[in-house]
Design brief:
By secondary structure, the protein is of the alpha+beta class. The chain folds into six domains: 78 residues, no CATH class; 45 residues; 83 residues; 211 residues, no CATH class; 68 residues, Orthogonal Bundle (Helix Hairpins); 75 residues, Transcription elongation factor, GreA/GreB, C-terminal domain (Chitinase A, domain 3, Roll). The chain is 56% helix and 10% strand. The protein is built from 31 helices and 14 strands. The strands form four sheets. Strands 4-3-2-1-5 form a five-stranded antiparallel β-sheet, with helices on one face. Strands 12-11-10-14-13 form a five-stranded mixed β-sheet. Helix 1 runs parallel beside helix 3, helix 15 packs across helix 18 and helix 28 packs antiparallel against helix 29. The longest helix has 30 residues. It is flat, with a radius of gyration of 34 Å.
Length: 672
C-alpha cells in the first residue's frame, strides 16, 4: 500500500484539480488509513472541495461523516452518488421509478414511480428504501423495450418467470405471485393459468429448480447439475433430510446410472434422513419412507416406518402437508404391508379428518372394498357429513351412483348446500369453494337435477332458495337456472329482497375520537419517532444497530397508519342518525333479537361505533351486516366459527334510547 503521506498529497492534488471522481476513488481505496490521518471531517472537507456540484456537496454533507462510523457514512455516500436525475431506481414498495429531482437545499430526492408520482425521500430514507436499478432487471427491461417484454410474457411464460426470478433473487412461489400481481404482469385471477403454462416450460429447464413447497425459493442455476463423481462425494456427506430427498429425486429425474456404489450411498443417506425427520416433520418422513420402499431398501424396515406413521394418526397430518401429487404414494405405502386390513380400518376411521387429496386417494385405492363403502355411507348419512366427502361425492356422483351404501342423492346435495353457507376456514373453506363452483356450473346442475325425481327437485330447490349463507347474486343465478331445468319450480320462486346501501357515517363521538387520535399521530407520535431515529444513529454501525432498525420500522408503520387514517377521515362523515326509521334494521336504530340463547337488544350505529357493555354495534360488524335491511319477524344468520349455521329472529325495531344518544355526543375536552 502507498505511503499515507503520498496518498494525502495525491488527494490534495485531485481536490485542487476538482477531480471529484478521482478523489472519491482514492478515498475509497484508502479509507481506513485516511480516516486515521485526516479524520472523517478532513475527508468530508476534501471531497467537498473537489467538486463544484452543489448536489455532490449536499451528498457529502448529508451522509453523517463525523457522526456515523466511517465505513457506514462512506457506503451511504457511494449509494447517493449512484442517484442522478433521470436515472432508474427500485423500491421494494413502489417498484421501478425515475429520479425526477435532487434537491440539494432540503436534501430530498423526488422519484416518479408508476403508481406514485412525486414521492419524496430524505437522503437517509433514499439510502434505506431505494437502490439503483440494474440494467438487466425485468422492470428496467419493460421500460426500455415494452414490445419485447410483452412478447415474452405472452409467448414464453417459462422464460419470463425465469427472468423475474433472476431479477428478484430466489423467491418463493407465494412471493412470485405477489411480484407478478403488484407489478401488473398478470391480474390475480389470471395467475394460476399463467403459472401452469410457465411451469410446463420450467420443469424442462435443467437450470431451474421448482421446490415442492410454495414457501421455499425457486432456484435458477448458472448451469445444469452434471451429477458427476464430485456431486456424489459431496452428497454422501449431506445431513439435511430435505436436501437428501431432493438430491435423490433430481438424480433419478436426470436418469443417471444406478450403480451399486450409488445405491449404497442413497441407502445410507436415506436411512440417516428418515431418522433425522422422525418426530420433527411427518410429511417429510412419509416422503422419505415411500422412497425407501420404492428402492427396496431394508433399513429402516417398511414395517417400522408404517407403524410410526400410523401411531397417533401421524399419517393424517402428513397427508395434509404433502403435495396432492404425493398423497397417493403415502396411502399406497401404508397399505402395502402384511397388516393391510388393519391399516385400512384405521384409515377409514380417520376419513373425517383426512384432507381432500387423501380422501380422493383412499376411495381411488379402496373403493371396491365393502368396508370402505360402508364407512363412506355412514358418514354421509350423519346429520353433519365431513366436508371433504360431501365435496368429492357430490362433484363426482356418477362414480358413486352404484354404491348402495350411500344415502339418496338429494341428501348429499342438501349437505352440499349447507357446506356452501356461512364463513368457513382451512380445508373446509376449500371444500366450500368447490361446492359453490359446482352449483354455478350449468352442466353439473343439469346432470344433478336429471338424477332427482320431482319431489327431490322441489326439496333441493326450496332448501337452496331459503339459504341465507350464499352470495345473493350467485344465489339468484343458480335459482334461475334451476327453474329453467325444472320449469315447474318457477311457481316456488320467492322474490329476493334488495339490500339498501348505507353511507359511511359514524357518531360525532367516534369521529371526534378518531380525529384526536390522528392529530396525536402527526403532532406527537411521528415527531417523537424522528427523534428516536436521530438518537439511534449515535449508536454506530446502522447495519447492526437494533435501535435504529426498530425506529425505522416504526416510522414506516406510522406513515402507513397516517395515510390510512387520513383516507378514513375523508370518507366517513359524522352523524346523529336523525333520519333513521324503524321500518327495517338500519344504522341509527335499536334491534331486539331472539336466539337459542335468549333475547338481546343492540344499537346499530356507524362504522367506528362500538361498545360491548352498551350493546352498540358498528354497521360493519358481521352481526349488524347480517341484520341490516331485515324487518320485524325476519330471520338472520348468526356469525360464528366453523360448524353448522345458526339463525336468530328480529323481534323489535325501535328508536335509539336516550342512553345511546348521550353516548354518541362528543366527549368533554375533545373537538371535531
Amino acid at each position: 500500500m502507498a505511503d499515507i503521506d503520498n496518498v494525502v498529497t495525491e488527494l490534495a492534488a485531485k481536490t485542487e484539480a476538482k477531480d471529484f471522481a478521482g478523489a472519491f476513488d482514492l478515498v475509497r481505496a484508502n479509507l481506513k488509513e485516511l480516516g486515521k490521518a485526516m479524520g472523517a471531517e478532513g475527508i468530508r472537507d476534501a471531497l467537498k472541495s473537489a467538486t463544484t456540484s452543489r448536489v455532490y456537496k449536499s451528498f457529502v454533507d448529508g451522509v453523517g461523516l463525523g457522526t456515523l462510523a466511517l465505513d457506514d457514512a462512506f457506503a451511504k455516500l457511494e449509494k447517493l452518488l449512484s442517484f442522478k436525475e433521470g436515472s432508474l431506481v427500485l423500491s421494494s414498495t413502489w417498484g421501478l421509478g425515475k429520479v425526477r429531482r435532487i434537491d440539494d437545499f432540503y436534501k430530498r430526492i423526488t422519484v416518479d414511480f408508476r403508481l406514485r408520482r412525486g414521492h419524496q425521500f430524505t437522503y437517509d430514507a433514499a439510502c434505506d428504501m431505494i437502490v439503483s436499478a440494474p440494467e438487466n432487471h425485468i422492470l428496467v427491461w419493460r421500460e426500455a423495450d415494452p414490445a419485447a417484454f410483452e412478447a415474452m410474457r405472452k409467448n414464453e411464460p417459462g422464460k419470463f418467470v425465469k427472468r423475474v426470478v433472476e431479477s428478484y433473487g430466489g423467491v418463493s412461489l407465494v412471493k412470485l405471485e405477489d411480484i407478478f400481481v403488484a407489478n401488473g404482469f398478470v391480474k390475480k385471477p389470471e395467475w394460476k393459468a399463467f403459472w401452469d403454462s410457465a411451469r410446463k416450460e420450467l420443469v424442462k429447464d435443467k437450470c431451474v429448480k421448482i421446490p415442492v413447497k410454495r414457501t421455499d425459493p425457486i432456484e435458477v442455476r448458472a448451469q445444469a447439475e452434471d451429477y458427476s463423481d464430485n456431486w456424489l462425494t459431496a452428497f454422501s456427506h449431506e445431513t439435511d433430510p430435505k436436501l437428501i430427498l431432493a438430491g435423490i429425486k433430481e438424480y433419478k429425474a436426470a436418469k443417471r446410472p444406478m450403480s451399486e456404489d450409488v445405491l449404497d450411498i442413497f441407502k445410507t443417506r436415506l436411512a440417516f434422513a428418515v431418522t433425522a425427520a422422525k418426530r420433527s416433520d411427518d410429511a417429510l418422513y412419509s416422503r422419505l419412507a415411500s422412497l425407501v420402499s420404492k428402492f427396496g431398501f431394508d433399513e429402516p424396515s417398511a414395517k417400522e416406518m408404517r407403524e410410526y406413521l400410523m401411531e397417533r394418526g401421524r399419517f393424517v397430518k402428513a397427508a395434509a402437508e404433502l403435495p396432492a401429487s404425493e398423497v397417493g404414494d403415502l396411502i399406497s405405502f401404508l397399505s402395502g404391508g402384511e397388516d393391510s386390513a388393519q391399516v385400512r380400518a384405521t384409515i377409514y376411521r380417520q376419513l373425517p379428518n383426512l384432507c381432500y387429496a387423501a380422501v380422493q386417494e383412499v376411495i381411488k385405492a379402496f373403493g371396491d372394498d365393502a368396508a370402505c363403502r360402508e364407512a363412506v355411507g355412514t358418514l354421509l348419512k350423519a346429520p353433519a357429513a365431513p366436508a371433504t366427502l360431501v365435496a368429492l361425492v357430490v362433484g363426482r356422483y356418477a362414480d358413486f351412483a352404484a354404491w348402495k351404501e350411500l344415502p339418496p342423492l338429494a341428501t348429499i346435495v342438501m349437505h352440499a348446500i349447507a357446506l356452501g353457507e356461512g364463513r368457513q376456514g382451512g380445508e373446509t373453506l376449500r371444500m366450500q369453494n368447490i361446492v359453490r363452483r359446482l352449483f354455478s356450473t350449468k352442466d353439473w346442475l343439469e346432470e344433478t337435477f336429471a338424477r332427482l325425481d320431482a319431489d327431490s327437485q322441489k326439496l333441493v330447490f326450496e332448501r337452496f332458495q331459503a339459504s341465507l349463507g350464499w352470495e345473493s347474486a350467485s344465489q339468484h343465478i343458480v335459482v334461475t337456472r334451476m327453474t329453467k331445468i325444472a320449469p315447474q319450480l318457477a311457481s316456488l320462486v320467492v322474490k329476493a329482497e334488495t339490500k339498501r346501501e348505507y353511507p359511511p357515517v359514524t357518531s360525532f363521538r367516534s369521529f371526534a375520537l378518531k380525529k384526536a387520535e390522528y392529530l396525536k399521530l402527526i403532532n406527537e407520535d411521528m415527531p417523537a419517532n424522528v427523534k428516536k431515529i436521530e438518537f439511534a444513529k449515535g449508536f454506530g454501525d446502522l447495519s447492526e444497530n437494533a435501535e435504529y432498525q426498530y425506529a425505522k420500522d416504526e416510522q414506516r408503520a406510522l406513515m402507513q397508519k397516517q395515510t390510512l387514517m387520513q383516507a378514513e377521515l375523508e370518507a366517513v362523515k359524522p352523524s346523529n342518525f336523525a333520519d333513521a326509521t324503524t321500518e327495517e334494521v338500519m344504522p341509527g336504530v335499536m334491534v331486539t333479537v331472539q336466539t337459542d340463547d335468549g333475547g338481546k337488544t343492540y344499537a346499530i350505529l356507524g362504522e367506528w361505533d362500538n361498545d360491548v357493555e352498551m350493546g352498540i354495534l358498528s354497521q360493519k360488524a358481521r352481526l349488524a351486516v347480517n341484520m341490516l335491511g331485515k324487518k320485524e319477524g325476519d330471520k338472520f344468520e348468526l356469525p360464528g366459527t366453523a360448524g353448522e349455521t345458526k339463525f336468530g329472529v328480529i323481534k323489535l325495531i325501535s328508536p335509539l334510547t336516550e342512553a345511546v344518544k348521550e353516548w354518541m355526543k362528543v366527549p368533554e375536552g375533545v373537538q371535531i
